[in-house]
Amino acid sequence: MQIAKETQKLNWRINKSPMGLDDPEKGYLKKMLTTPPVKKIDLHFPLGLEVTARNMKGVTIKDALDAIYKQYRKKADDELETPILAGFEWDKEESWTRLIVHTKKEGAPQPKKKSKKAGVEGEEL
User: Total domain count for the chain?
Assistant: First the structure.
Protein backbone atom coordinates (compact mmCIF):
# COMPACT_ATOMS: atom_id res chain seq x y z
CA MET A 1 0.00 0.00 0.00
CA GLN A 2 1.38 3.43 -0.97
CA ILE A 3 0.44 7.05 -0.32
CA ALA A 4 0.39 9.54 -3.22
CA LYS A 5 3.65 11.55 -3.10
CA GLU A 6 1.85 14.57 -4.57
CA THR A 7 0.40 15.37 -1.13
CA GLN A 8 3.86 16.61 -0.10
CA LYS A 9 4.00 19.12 -2.97
CA LEU A 10 0.66 20.85 -2.38
CA ASN A 11 1.75 23.64 0.00
CA TRP A 12 -1.89 23.75 1.05
CA ARG A 13 -3.16 25.75 4.04
CA ILE A 14 -5.46 23.48 6.04
CA ASN A 15 -7.90 26.34 6.71
CA LYS A 16 -8.33 27.23 3.01
CA SER A 17 -10.50 25.41 0.48
CA PRO A 18 -8.58 22.84 -1.60
CA MET A 19 -10.35 24.26 -4.64
CA GLY A 20 -8.25 27.40 -4.20
CA LEU A 21 -5.09 25.54 -5.23
CA ASP A 22 -3.45 26.57 -8.50
CA ASP A 23 -2.26 24.31 -11.29
CA PRO A 24 -0.37 21.99 -11.33
CA GLU A 25 -1.34 21.27 -7.70
CA LYS A 26 -5.07 21.44 -8.49
CA GLY A 27 -4.60 18.54 -10.91
CA TYR A 28 -3.35 16.34 -8.05
CA LEU A 29 -6.75 16.50 -6.30
CA LYS A 30 -8.28 13.86 -8.59
CA LYS A 31 -5.53 11.32 -7.82
CA MET A 32 -6.20 8.46 -5.44
CA LEU A 33 -4.72 9.09 -2.00
CA THR A 34 -3.59 5.48 -1.71
CA THR A 35 -2.64 2.66 -4.04
CA PRO A 36 -4.65 0.45 -4.06
CA PRO A 37 -7.65 2.77 -3.41
CA VAL A 38 -9.58 2.48 -0.14
CA LYS A 39 -13.19 3.54 0.50
CA LYS A 40 -12.51 5.07 3.91
CA ILE A 41 -9.42 6.34 5.67
CA ASP A 42 -8.90 7.95 9.08
CA LEU A 43 -6.61 10.96 9.16
CA HIS A 44 -5.00 11.39 12.57
CA PHE A 45 -3.36 14.63 13.72
CA PRO A 46 -0.51 14.39 16.27
CA LEU A 47 -2.52 16.51 18.75
CA GLY A 48 -5.30 13.93 18.81
CA LEU A 49 -7.87 15.19 16.28
CA GLU A 50 -9.05 12.57 13.83
CA VAL A 51 -11.11 13.07 10.68
CA THR A 52 -12.37 10.47 8.23
CA ALA A 53 -12.32 10.74 4.43
CA ARG A 54 -14.76 8.55 2.51
CA ASN A 55 -15.43 7.83 -1.15
CA MET A 56 -17.09 4.66 -2.43
CA LYS A 57 -14.94 4.77 -5.59
CA GLY A 58 -11.75 5.27 -3.58
CA VAL A 59 -10.53 8.17 -1.45
CA THR A 60 -8.86 10.87 -3.55
CA ILE A 61 -6.44 13.55 -2.37
CA LYS A 62 -9.35 16.01 -2.61
CA ASP A 63 -11.52 13.84 -0.33
CA ALA A 64 -8.77 13.88 2.31
CA LEU A 65 -8.22 17.64 2.00
CA ASP A 66 -11.98 18.29 2.18
CA ALA A 67 -12.23 16.28 5.41
CA ILE A 68 -9.34 18.25 6.94
CA TYR A 69 -10.70 21.58 5.65
CA LYS A 70 -14.11 20.96 7.28
CA GLN A 71 -12.37 20.85 10.67
CA TYR A 72 -10.21 23.93 10.16
CA ARG A 73 -12.16 26.28 7.87
CA LYS A 74 -13.29 28.52 10.73
CA LYS A 75 -9.77 28.95 12.11
CA ALA A 76 -7.81 32.12 11.40
CA ASP A 77 -4.22 31.80 10.15
CA ASP A 78 -2.82 33.03 13.47
CA GLU A 79 -4.77 30.37 15.39
CA LEU A 80 -2.89 27.58 13.64
CA GLU A 81 0.65 26.84 14.75
CA THR A 82 1.42 24.71 11.69
CA PRO A 83 -1.11 25.61 8.96
CA ILE A 84 0.57 23.99 5.92
CA LEU A 85 0.04 20.34 4.97
CA ALA A 86 3.40 18.55 4.79
CA GLY A 87 2.05 15.11 3.86
CA PHE A 88 0.72 11.85 5.25
CA GLU A 89 2.38 8.84 6.86
CA TRP A 90 1.11 5.34 7.66
CA ASP A 91 0.28 4.88 11.32
CA LYS A 92 2.40 1.82 12.06
CA GLU A 93 0.56 1.11 15.32
CA GLU A 94 -2.82 1.02 13.60
CA SER A 95 -4.02 -0.84 10.55
CA TRP A 96 -3.62 0.45 7.01
CA THR A 97 -6.87 2.42 7.32
CA ARG A 98 -5.24 5.24 9.28
CA LEU A 99 -2.75 7.90 8.23
CA ILE A 100 -0.90 10.41 10.38
CA VAL A 101 -1.23 13.98 9.07
CA HIS A 102 1.94 16.07 9.13
CA THR A 103 1.81 19.85 9.01
CA LYS A 104 4.49 22.52 9.00
CA LYS A 105 4.82 26.21 9.78
CA GLU A 106 5.59 27.51 6.29
CA GLY A 107 5.17 26.37 2.73
CA ALA A 108 8.01 26.01 0.28
CA PRO A 109 9.11 29.40 -1.03
CA GLN A 110 7.87 30.36 -4.46
CA PRO A 111 10.68 30.44 -7.01
CA LYS A 112 12.16 33.93 -7.19
CA LYS A 113 14.09 35.58 -9.97
CA LYS A 114 17.61 36.36 -8.86
CA SER A 115 18.59 39.99 -9.14
CA LYS A 116 21.90 40.65 -10.81
CA LYS A 117 23.77 43.16 -8.68
CA ALA A 118 27.44 43.83 -9.25
CA GLY A 119 28.25 44.63 -5.65
CA VAL A 120 26.60 45.33 -2.32
CA GLU A 121 26.63 48.98 -1.33
CA GLY A 122 26.55 50.42 2.16
CA GLU A 123 28.18 47.46 3.91
CA GLU A 124 29.80 48.31 7.20
CA LEU A 125 32.41 46.27 9.03
Answer: 1
